Amino acid sequence: MVDDRLSERHVLVTGAAQGIGRGIATRVADAGADVTIFDVETELAAETSEAVRERGGRSSVHAVDVSDADAVQDAVGDAVEEMGPIHGLVNNAGIQRSIPILELSKGEWDAHMNVNARGVFNCCQAIGQHMVEADVEGAIVNIASTAAERPFPGQGVYAASKAAVIAFTMVLAKELGEHRITANCINPGTVDTPMVQEWLAENAEQSGVTPDAVLEDALDQHILDRMGKPEEIGHLVTFLLSGEGAWLTGESINFDGGYTKQ
After folding, report:
1. Which is it for strands 182-188 and 252-255: parallel, antiparallel or unpaired?
2. Are 236 and 28 in contact (CB under 8 A)?
3. With 0-12 CB in 10 A as exposed, 13-18 as middle and 19+ as buried, what is 106?
4. How many angstroms separate the first and last alpha carbons of the chain?
5. 3-state helix, strand, coil in the chain (%, to 5)
6. Where does residue 105 fall: left (phi above 0), alpha (psi -120 to 50 degrees), or beta otherwise?
7. Where in 69-138 does DSSP place strands (E)?
């Protein structure tokens, strides 16, 4: 069965060099979308872009630090000029380090907030303005985290930044609804990505155990007792960006293998 739900739509995905972002970019391409990628890891992002093209979509990579509002604004203009109006935005770019609160530096706090929260604001503002001016019936999906509701030790600043994204998205939905633009959050649980592997290693070192032991403890708290796959997040993103998700807005969706229900 051919999935053409996003045919002739231009989707912009931040942080799509690897992990969840790559899973999202390739999945929306499977549904017919053209994909613009914003990422600082341009070599890895180019691999994702090639994977999109292999699926039949157009794709380009822009070297963008999402915490830089001017860089975002310029790149949005370039993306629109290159591939036309943007119909969907997925804010996935993010950083995560496992740092106990009493050891957390101001620099690490700012780094997490700048990418995870300010980056979402910068992209939503720039692309939201574009959608309104172009009269696009669009959709915005922000990737937050179950850490906003149920964080592990060491996730103090990460959890705070993702909680900010959830609250921000609720207001965004209310303000953009009159323009026929939806805004929702997805809160993944433990997904098999390079970021999670790094988090497992950091947590293991701090706890004096192995990464496998940390993972086993984490998965014991998921009803389905396994990590998620990046493309599974992409399935939900595809729904939210398509016409099928057009009456859903302002929601914060825990997509977590049952982690928040244990």
Report:
1. parallel
2. no
3. exposed
4. 35
5. 55, 15, 30
6. beta
7. 88-91
**β 88-91/139-143 pair status:** parallel
Q: Which residue has the tokens 């026929």?
A: 180
Which sign, positive or negative, has the C-alpha torsion 95, 97, 102, 107? Answer: negative
Distance (Å, whole) CA 189 – CA 92: 14
- Catalytic residue numbers read 158
pLDDT at position 188? 97
pLDDT tens column, 114-142: 999 999 999 999 999 999 999 999 999 99
**pLDDT band per the 50, 70, 90 thresholds, residue 168:** very high
How many whole angstroms separate alpha carbon 108 and alpha carbon 129? Answer: 30
Higher model confidence: residue 172 or residue 195? 172
Instruction: Give the residue among 234, 235, 97, 254 at the shortest CA–CA distance from 187.
Output: 254
pLDDT over 90 at 205, yes or no: no
Residues 6+ apart with CB under 8 A from 141: 88, 89, 90, 91, 183, 184, 185, 186, 237, 240, 241
Q: Are 34 and 11 in contact (CB under 8 A)?
A: yes
Per-residue pLDDT at 1? 66
Average pLDDT score over the chain: 96
- Nearest CA to 72 among 113, 130, 119, 26? 119
The residue type found at 237 is V
Half-sphere exposure of 94 (CA within 13 A, CB side): 29
CA-nearest of 142, 133, 43, 126 to 92 is: 142
Query: What pTM was estimated for this model as a whole?
Result: 0.95
